[in-house]
Design a protein that fits this description.
The protein has 133 residues and is mostly helical. The protein is built from three helices and no strands. Helix 1 packs antiparallel against helix 2.
Length: 133
Amino acid sequence: MLTVIIVVHLMLVIAMIGVVLLQKSEGGGLVSSTSGFLSSRGTANVLTRATALLAAGFFVTSLALSWVASFERKPVSIINTGGGPAGEAPTAPLAPPLNQGSGGLLNQLQRGVQGAPAAPLPPPSGPQVPQSK
């Protein structure tokens, strides 16, 4: 079903491009001003109606494609609300939590630096204001 709608949609697109290119513009367009079967006014009316019909078909097939594609969507939450699928054992966290009495993230990072003090600093007693030197 989806393939049929896509093929019809593409045929409408190609036909609409062709009809728009055939329309007379201020520069003359691709349609020459011959006094044959259709006059310039009659050609404009036919091409305008054809463009309108092709545009309506384009919108209808676009809506049909979006409607058919909505059936294949499976809603996914960006918030991890539950564990894994049923039957799977929960996995261990990759990194330990940052606040395990180790003095905070900066102290954990300083442990990897050679010569850095390993003792945690006491927490500040209140809000801190930067001092100018």
